[in-house]
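Annual report, structural modelling task.

Input specification for the pyridoxal-5'-phosphate complex:
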Amino acid sequence: MDIKKLYQQYSLNTYTRVGPVFVKGKGSWLWDDKGNKYLDLLPGWGVSILGHCHPGIVKVINQQVKKLMHLPNNLFFKEQALLAEEIVKKSFPAKVFFANSGAESIEGAIKFSRLFGRGKRYEIITMRNSFHGRTFGALSATAQSKYKKPFRPILAGFKEAKFNDFESFKSKVTPRTVAVLLELIQGEGGINLADRGYVKQLRQYCQKHSLLFIVDEVQTGMGRTGKLFAYQNYPIKPDIMVLSKGLGAGVPVSALVVNKAITDIIKPGMHASTFGGSPLVTRTSLEVFKIIERENLLVKAKTMGDYVYRKLSVLKDKYPFIKEVRGKGLMLGLELSLDAQPLFLDCLNKKLVINATHKTVLRMLPALNVSRDELDQGLEILESVFKAAL
Ligand SMILES: Cc1ncc(COP(=O)(O)O)c(C=O)c1O
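The model returned the following structure:
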């Protein structure tokens, strides 16, 4: 069976697919259909935060599919309630809505902001080079014109400010502004970290002027930065947090987490999702939280993250085309003075999976349980690719 031919014939051409046909995964490793083994330091674009097929996750999925997979959201079931409780206990006093993807929960945040603005305020300020997803609201919030151009006119009510520039943000505020939406580390935008002072100023401004402070933690959440949620690296709490990717460690689930103090404005019938927060995905996600705790993965993400960061900094001193090393925990990027795509392909040829983003950035989002030895193997391949590019 020629799988690539089937893709060509039957799949809509929305992705640039490369590499072999993969058939199985375990931890930070993948195998192709010829039995070749690949080191995956970007498992599932950051989704597979516990690596591929973590035994604890496989076990609860197996148990849950035999018990109860799906129920509609007009009925009660314990898995969803327990997960909502867990998220709130680990973050801030809030109530949670479950959906299936990052973009879908961003849509929820946009709708909630419109409710909060009560028809008078509806503008949301987002940050240059942000990425919030591909559905219409999330796409409109994404301040990168390359994604939006073919689909104009986009949704009205979004203003773009420069990231890490408080004056730029202030210059975009109007009497119609209702919220600010940002990633504390921009992922697709090239691993750009929000400054502590900037975040504090933004948060204070929002508080003072009754604007919602919304953090998109789709990529930064679930321990990625060494804290369970990236906002916990800052002296702030958001009004709304959006989670996805690692939340299910492989099953599709996302969450809109809204500060309890402002939840009364949303009423039954205003928002819904057929699949959102099913017993299957919420039971799985609950286990993700347990495993992160049991395996001490926040500490590991920080230790391993610091380790790779140091190693990448050594590479930077050796290879003049590496302009900057950026990141926190296990969310890392190398800014190059070269096109990153060919280097990503060279890595793939040498059986290392990472990715290229924002043209000149090589990105790594290793599983939180990646070992030092695996990281060393990946860095060795990366260096061999850099040597060849000199
Ligand atoms: C920060 C951020 N927000 C939103 C999204 C969209 O998530 P999804 O592709 O699950 O809709 C992504 C996807 O990469 C993301 O990185």
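Residues 101-103, 106, 131-133, 183, 187-188, 216, 218-219, 244 surround pyridoxal-5'-phosphate (CB under 6 Å).
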